[in-house]
Amino acid sequence: MISVIIPVRNGEPYIVEAIESALAQGDCVREVIVVDDGSTDATIASIQAIADPRIRLFTSRGARPSGVSGGRNFGFEQATQPWVMFLDADDRLRPGACSALLAAAGPSDAVAVYGDYERIDAAGTTIGRRRLLGRRAKPEGDVTEKLLAGNFLVNGGVALMRAEAFRKTAGFREDLRYCEDWHAWCLLAAQGEFLYVPGLCVMDYRVHAGSTMMAKRLSFDDYRPALDAIYAEPRLTKNRAPERLRTLRQAAEAHLRAYLAAQAVRDRRYLSALQGLVQAIITSPSKALRNTALVGSAAFGI
Description:
Elements: E1 2-8, H1 15-23, E2 29-36, H2 43-48, E3 55-59, H3 68-78, E4 83-86, E5 92-93, H4 97-105, E6 112-120, E7 126-127, H5 144-148, E8 159-162, H6 163-167, H7 180-189, E9 194-206, H8 220-231, H9 234-237, H10 242-266, H11 270-283, H12 288-299
Parallel strand pairs: 1-2, 1-4, 2-3, 6-9
Antiparallel strand pairs: 4-8, 5-9, 6-7, 6-8
Helix pairs in contact: 7-8, 8-10, 10-11, 10-12, 11-12
Enzyme class: transferase
Protein name: UDP-Glc:alpha-D-GlcNAc-diphosphoundecaprenol beta-1,3-glucosyltransferase WfgD
EC number: 2.4.1.305
């Protein structure tokens, strides 16, 4: 039923835990496709030591994958199941998460079904207070405009995606370094409806110094190429009035600025956080409450 796709490069510290969390989902996970993109540590040996026939390991020694998007795209090309999940090599799935998502999808025509996540540190200990959000509502149905206004999905590891629909997106843009997943989710949303499962924690998102989002201090300019790509995509912009697109883009820019401000709060760079929040409010005054809540929640560990 499900192909779990894990791109990895020098992921020795966490890759075994990620793979084992996918295998532990039971019979609903028919294959775990691991795409190694030139690891120089013991990643490959660690994977080969796991004795489970569902693991399909591909290495880049024969070329192709370059970067996380290349790895995901290559892994998707190998997938044989009707549902796919893209799991990062340093994250882990919660027990029973995949079967719960499948059950929620039921006989619907949804192109994606998703839940929520929790944050963990390098040692795997829960950090923050996201659990206080409980059974909060998140977007479902036709979520295209919701995604155009900001990436509420955050991480693809929280979702099952229908392979047939994802194939029509043409995959992840390999020329985008950041927010390439947001671009793909927008295109997927244009294919059909999303379902949300309230109260279901699907995965643990690991926050550590070596992760892509933590390895350097990002600015809005790092995200701008993805924002430009999304709003240059005819499949997303057609049949939407210029004024509506302008409003959605302003909301998306404000959301990115608020996200950066929230990260600054977590890093205890409070002046930068305040400046970022002010920029977000100026960019999209109508989203001021939402973005203030986003930054404020970071102060409370949510």
